[in-house]
Amino acid sequence: MTPAVAKRFRSGRACLDFAHTAETPDWREPELVYDRPSLERWLSHILGLAAVRTEPGDVAEAHRLRAAILRLARARTSEQPFDPQDVDVLNAFAAAAPPIPRLTANGALAPLAATAVAGLSAIARDAIDLFAGPLGHRIRVCASPDCAYMFVDASRPGTRRWCSMQRCGNLAKVHTHRDNQAVKDLAR
Ligand SMILES: [Zn+2]
Predict the structure, then answer these.
(1) Confidence of residue 177 (pLDDT cuts 50, 70, 90)
(2) Comparing 167 with 155, which gets the higher pLDDT?
(3) What's the CA-to-centroid distance between 117 and ligand 1, angstroms?
(4) Residue 149 belongs to some domain of the structure
(5) 40 alpha carbon to ligand 1 midpoint, in Å?
């Protein structure tokens, strides 16, 4: 996985990682879910499933859920009310049975295969858990202009600005340092 793709899956939440597979005006990277194999690949990756089985129509359904989650998450990043239609879509997807975990005889978790319907249910349930939970108003957009992905700020003061301090935070520091240096150079 290239760094440009990997950074789409660092939000810390399955529902936001799933939202980040979209192509939007907010970030520069392209659509990741454009056919059944790509849906199977990324849904497996995000949910840690061994395999996902899709049927015709699943890609459109995935896009419908994703668009609702994106708008709901965006509403939270700007403290706007939810669109009730998006809430209905989310609840409808969550109503399907999620992937069922299975224990092996030696006490491990069996490799889990699921349908896309079950996978999308797990994504929708994660979104409900996030929005209604203690971090539901801590969804932020990374302050780095060349990132713009969302993350959940679990820091105690709730003042985190970047999705990743190592990546976007350090880049911002480098830029600030350069800007300061440029100002000093001009002043000379
Ligand atoms: Zn970032």
Answers:
(1) low
(2) 155
(3) 30
(4) no
(5) 26
Distances (CA, A) of 166 to 27, 42, 55, 169: 19, 24, 39, 6
Helices and strands per DSSP (H, E), number in the chain: 7, 4
Phi, psi (deg, nearest 5) at residue 151: -150, 165
Domain of 28 in residue numbering reads as: 3-139
Tell me, what's the pLDDT at 170? 79
In a domain, 42, yes or no: yes
Give 78 Cα–ligand 1 centroid separation in angstroms: 17
Question: What average pLDDT does the structure give for the chain?
Answer: 92
Please state, in angstroms and rounded to a whole number, the distance separating the CA atoms of residues 112 and 97: 14
The answer to whether position 41 is within a domain reads yes
Question: What are the backbone angles phi and psi of residue 152, rounded to the nearest 5°?
Answer: -105, 120
In a domain, 131, yes or no: yes
Which residues have C-beta under 5 Å from ligand 1, the single-atom ion? 142, 144, 147, 163, 168
What is the domain count for the chain? Answer: 1
